[in-house]
Write a structure and sequence with these properties.
The protein is α+β, with helices and mostly antiparallel strands. It has helices at 3-12, 19-24, 57-71, 113-129, 133-141, 150-169, 176-201, 204-210, 246-258, 265-276, 283-294, 297-307, 315-327, 329-343; strands at 29-35, 38-43, 46-53, 90-92, 95-101, 106-107, 214-217, 226-229, 232-235, 242-245.
């Protein structure tokens, strides 16, 4: 059985699908079917999505407020239903539920360059529509939601890998995952040190201070979060949204497009060209993109997830994914060379 599907079924079992809940949600249900980690609800008023969220009310309100702001100038995002009391969630048996109108369409295909282009254009449109959102949220909630800096994220990754390295070295018996981790961790610690130094030499801090390219960032721009119909794209699932430099989102999208196809340079160009059809990227942003891809995110995240037991995967799933990511590294290094030759020929601090 597919492990991901199994975990989704376990997650769906935690939903309370009682008639009393649907009465609270102000929904008359005709039929209901599971889809990934949500339920599709068929009603006389149209089809809805019922979703149980694992974060607090403050974050629900932040996401809802952000999406309503974006939707004023870009309509192709999902938004949360507001109930009669004007709140966008329901607390039920110590769980939090949200309801959304369903967006029609099929999942986008990142093997199709036309759809990559459309997705990239819509990311740019979403970013443009979120201009001023940071200031709006400060006024609404009396706090700044700008995300943690890359400096702190890189340092956290470095410290966690060092901690895990010490943990693994304390093991009397090591399995194959432990051995692979130990064999590679020092190389990746050096890579993190390199990107830390490159980040200091970049224009990152000035971009953060100026705020010109700060936007809503989705942070999970995988193919299944784009729905396409009649050459139009909608973007869904903003659970991981932040307020940050738009290049963070662009980097995430590019990596999602290329890392499972041997870091295909042409796909990267399609991503950038599609985005720049709507709005150009600054040279400093293209330099930051290089740093983001040079950071060993795959090794760090699979190691963290395995040793911190963040995902309910079987050991073989973890091992296979680590092996796959390590086998992909030569392609990533070749990609970085090609990217530098294309965009960063005169940028001496990036090597």
């Amino acid at each position: 059985m597919n492990k991901t599907k199994y975990s989704e079924k376990n997650y769906l079992c935690d939903y309370d699908l009682s008639l009393n809940l649907f009465n609270e949600l102000e929904i008359k249900v005709n039929d209901i079917i599971p889809l990934r980690k949500v339920f599709v609800i068929y009603t006389d008023e149209g089809n809805k999505i019922l979703k149980k969220v694992n974060y607090g009310i403050d974050r629900v309100n932040l996401i809802s407020e952000s999406l309503e702001y974006v939707k004023k100038n870009y309509s192709h995002v999902i938004t949360y239903k507001r109930f009669k009391d004007n709140v966008c969630y329901k607390k039920w048996n110590d769980q939090t539920y949200i309801v959304m109108d369903i967006l029609d369409g099929r999942e986008a295909s990142f093997s199709n360059p036309v759809e990559i282009d459309l997705c990239a254009e819509n990311i740019a449109l979403m970013h443009k529509a979120s201009k001023g959102l940071r200031e709006h949220l400060i006024t609404k909630f009396n706090r700044d939601f700008l995300d943690v800096s890359l400096n702190d994220k890189f340092q956290k990754a470095y410290d966690e890998l060092v901690w895990i390295k010490n943990l693994v070295n304390s093991y009397k018996y090591k399995n194959e995952f432990d051995e692979l981790f130990n064999k590679n961790v020092d190389k990746y610690l050096v890579e993190i040190e390199e990107v830390q130094q490159q980040l200091k030499k970049s224009n990152y801090e000035n971009l953060r201070k100026s705020g010109d390219t700060i936007s809503l960032c989705h942070n999970d721009l995988a193919y299944h979060n784009f729905l396409t119909k009649n050459d139009e794209i909608s973007i869904i699932d903003f659970d991981y949204m932040t307020i940050d430099l738009r290049i963070m989102d662009i980097g995430d999208f590019i990596l999602k497009c290329i890392k499972n196809v041997a870091f295909d340079v042409d796909k990267m160009l399609a991503c950038i060209n599609g985005y720049e059809n709507i709005t150009p990227l600054k040279q400093e942003e293209k330099e930051l993109l290089y740093i983001l891809i040079k950071f060993p995110r795959d090794f760090y995240t699979i190691s963290r997830d395995y040793y911190y037991k963040r995902k309910k995967w079987e050991y073989d799933v973890y091992l296979n994914r680590l092996e796959m990511k390590l086998n992909n590294e030569d392609f990533r290094y070749e990609f970085l060379k090609a990217y530098k030759n294309k965009f960063l020929v005169d940028t001496e601090y990036l090597t």
